[in-house]
Design a protein that fits this description.
alpha/beta, UDP-n-acetylglucosamine1-carboxyvinyl-transferase, Chain, 2 domains, four-stranded mixed sheet, 14 helices, 24 strands, globular, binds uridine-diphosphate-N-acetylglucosamine
């Protein structure tokens, strides 16, 4: 088992290139199976969640041709099964997109219930409601399998009770091959919703309004092949911006869409960072102790819940008292106990965390409870005095490509070391001491 060993105290300086958006990739890869022609997807992030979904796609018989690390060609013409029972699929959230995609294409799908990070109850009632409104019968079967089946799918008016990224994408997927028009109201507006819609349109779908809260999907008879490049990852970019701020660094975060980062940039400016925007990059400079602020996570364009742990880590070292309100997931503060072991002063009450900024954090042996919390604990390790040893790094690898390599290139002292490799640990300590 691998762990990150981090020696804190170095400012991050330099440039980092952001990869394709994981959460867009999951919807796009599922959508790709809906054509019976080759679909070439570029700027694919090479992260575990994406690779698990690709294995599942080839497991149902589609041709998956990995051209290079960031490019894949998929052809759904050879799909033999609509039953996705791949062992690992249960561990990733994006597995449920195969339900929408296969239901749309074959009017039938069976997928093992999705997993993903344990950050709340994460119900899928809105997905179910959407599929049922299109005419499907949806059942949860023994062994945690969801099945959906329809004689024919027919467009309908669907009002989502909660703004859900997953349900919006899933209903878009299923409805683009349904008869007539589907209207999704109270739709999520995240950048990856727009990216999945643009991708499906490039395959011949007719989706309008993605990025607003009303999406209109006019069903088409079939989808064709396409070549598509995935947008940059908003959360990877935001994580490096906050890492620059936390370490009092100066980092140019390249290959981003600055508009997608507005909520994050605004908070950084508010607490005293300099944020400079260019066409496809942002530079974050912090050269003094940062101030406090309040943050409430909200659906896009609000502050992303996937950045909540990282900003908490940053504010743990800022001056004064900050309040974080988590309004999307009910169980997203598990990492606070780990930050407390490093000396942070944070009290959690329900969905709120009250942070009293401290002067410094101290390295400790800690554990990543989930993907984004893991990234936040790395940020804490980068600023802490001494060594931090973080285990459960596989969570981080689900969503960050070459995380420690990118941080090392910016000057951080971080290395992934096997938990039993005492020699490698001593070698690293010698190198950085
Ligand atoms: C997606 C992202 C995740 C991100 C989240 C919010 C992927 C693979 N994951 O997760 O990284 O944190 O969006 O931006 O893209 N809800 C229901 N019923 C449903 C569906 C959702 O009540 O059927 C609730 C959830 O419990 C949550 C809220 O709606 O409180 C938002 O969830 P949703 O946007 O669906 O998140 P995910 O798609 O799971």
């Amino acid at each position: 088992m691998d762990q990150y060993v981090i020696k804190g105290g170095k400012p991050l300086v330099g440039e980092v290139v952001i990869g394709g958006a994981k959460n867009a990739a999951l919807g796009i890869l599922a959508g790709a199976v809906m054509a019976d022609e080759p679909v070439l997807i570029e700027n694919l992030p090479d992260v575990c969640d994406v690779n698990v979904l690709l294995d599942a796609i080839s497991g149902i018989g589609a041709i998956v041709d990995r051209i290079d690390r960031h490019t894949v060609k998929i052809n759904g013409r050879t799909i033999k099964s609509v039953y996705v029972d791949y062992e690992y699929i249960k561990k990733i959230r994006g597995s449920y997109y195969l339900l929408g995609a296969l239901l749309g294409k074959y009017k039938e799908a069976k997928v093992a219930l999705p997993g993903g990070c344990n950050i709340g109850s994460r119900p899928i009632d809105q997905h179910k409601k959407g599929f049922e409104a299109l005419g499907a019968k949806v059942k949860i079967e023994q062994g945690g399998i969801i099945s959906a089946k329809a004689d024919c799918l027919k467009g309908n008016h669907i009002y989502l009770d909660v703004v859900s990224v997953g349900a919006t994408i899933n209903i878009m997927l299923a409805s683009c091959l349904a008869e007539e028009t589907t209207i999704i109201e109270n739709a999520a507006k995240e950048p990856h919703i727009v990216d999945v819609a643009n991708f499906l349109n490039s395959m011949g779908a007719n989706i309008k309004g993605a990025g607003t809260d009303v999406i209109r999907v006019k069903g088409v008879g079939k989808l064709h092949g396409s070549t598509y490049s995935i947008i940059p990852d908003q959360i990877e970019a935001g994580t490096f911006m906050l890492a620059a701020a936390a370490t009092k660094g100066d980092v140019l975060v390249k290959n981003v869409i600055p508009k997608h980062l507005d909520a994050i940039s605004a908070k950084l400016v508010e607490i005293g960072c300099e944020v400079e925007e260019f066409d496809d990059s942002v530079r974050v400079v912090a050269n003094k102790r940062l101030g406090h602020t309040n943050v409430k996570t909200l659906p896009y364009p609000g502050f992303p819940t996937d950045m909540q742990p990282q900003i908490t880590a940053l504010l743990a070292l800022s001056d004064g008292t900050s309040v974080i309100t988590e309004s999307i997931f009910e169980n997203r503060f598990k990492y606070v106990a780990e930050l407390a072991r490093m000396g942070a002063d944070i009290k959690v009450e329900g969905n709120m965390a009250v942070i009293n900024g401290v002067d410094n954090l101290m390295g400790a042996a800690i554990s990543a409870p989930d993907l984004r919390a893991g990234a936040a604990l790395v940020l804490a390790g980068l600023v802490a005095e001494g060594y931090t040893i973080l285990d459960q790094v596989t969570y981080i690898e689900r969503g960050y490509e070459l995380f420690e390599e990118k941080l090392t290139a910016l000057g951080a002292s971080i290395k992934k070391i096997d938990i039993n490799d005492e020699r490698e640990l001593q070698k690293f300590k010698l190198q950085v001491s």
